[in-house]
Write a structure and sequence with these properties.
Elements (H helix, E strand, L loop, with lengths): L7 H9 L6 H8 L1 E6 L11 E8 L2 E8 L5 H6 L7 H16 L4 E7 L6 H5 L2 H13 L5 E10 H5 L6 E5 L3 E3 L3 H9 L5 H7 L4 H6 L5 E3 L7 H22 L4 H13 L8
Parallel strand pairs: 3-4, 4-5, 5-6, 5-7, 6-8
Antiparallel strand pairs: 1-2, 2-3
Helix pairs in contact: 4-6, 8-9
Length: 270
């Protein structure tokens, strides 16, 4: 399994590895009968976020996943996993559909961040991210978010307002990249390794700060056999948490999610 002595920067490199398993790899392994659904009913279908329906046994789910490409061609089609506003509006559409049909929502987080291009800003990128977080906060069905790779900036948090947040052991989750952090804080992008340590972006750090609820063990390098083991662990955790939340009413589900975010971090009065 993964080496716990890996530095924060080494985990950043693993999370960014182009050979790392993508959200769709996990979806195909964890769920049965995945059917992809398209479009935000307003503009177009942005492929950086994949939405659809799936099952585990008899339990139906709505799936929302940030998806990087597996090849250069696919990365271009998926904008390297950096969503445009249409992606977040598509996600909102299917969140509301999930609430209507009482389906739990499972989101997969794996992005460098929301796309920062001029056209994305003109289409309301900030508003789309904020609206997605707002709608997730009050959604009356259980939500589980899983950080499977690189979870950076508001582009990740936009689909991360969940009752439970799982994180793969070698994934990262942060407000921005270590390079960006060091450039802003120290005006020196070369201090990215130091920044990675200070940012507390690893699964271990975030679990201690109560930002995430579960660390899923994983190998440093995947083969088909140990990938199936990781996917099976995720499937079991999803089933366990959904079973627990079956006994909560709508208001309790929303309150549970609210309190999770209220209780994050440690604060001392001085």
């Amino acid at each position: 399994m993964a080496n716990t002595r890996l530095s924060a920067w080494e985990k950043v490199e693993i999370a960014r590895d182009s050979k790392r398993k993508t959200s769709l790899d996990y979806i195909e392994e964890i769920f049965d009968d995945f059917i992809e659904l398209h479009g935000d009913r307003n503009s177009k279908d942005d492929k950086a976020i994949v939405c659809g329906l799936a099952k585990i046994g008899k339990q139906n789910f709505t799936i929302i996943a940030e998806q990087k490409g597996r090849t250069t061609k696919e990365n271009i089609e998926r904008n390297f996993g950096m969503p445009n506003p249409e992606s977040y509006r598509k996600a909102i559409r299917f969140m509301k559909q999930a609430e209507k049909f009482k389906r739990p929502v499972i989101t997969f987080i794996d992005t460098k961040g929301a796309y920062p291009g001029i056209e994305a800003e003109e289409k309301g990128q900030g508003e789309a991210i904020a609206k997605s977080m707002f709608e997730m906060a009050k959604l009356k069905v259980p939500i589980i978010s899983i950080v499977v790779g690189e979870g950076s900036s508001g582009g990740a948090l936009a689909i991360g307002v969940a009752n439970k947040v799982f994180m793969l052991e070698n994934a990262i989750y942060s407000i921005l990249s270590p390079e960006g952090y060091s450039s802003i804080l120290w005006k020196d992008a070369s201090r990215f390794k130091e920044a990675a340590e200070k940012m507390k972006l690893t699964a271990k750090d975030l679990f201690e700060l109560k930002v995430i609820d579960k660390i899923i063990k994983e190998p440093k390098e995947y083969n088909e056999e140990n990938f199936k083991k990781v996917a099976n662990s995720l499937q079991k955790e999803i089933q366990k948490e959904i079973q627990k939340m079956k006994y909560l009413n709508d208001n309790q589900i929303v309150e549970n999610r609210y309190m999770k975010f209220r209780n994050m971090g440690e604060f001392k009065e001085v």
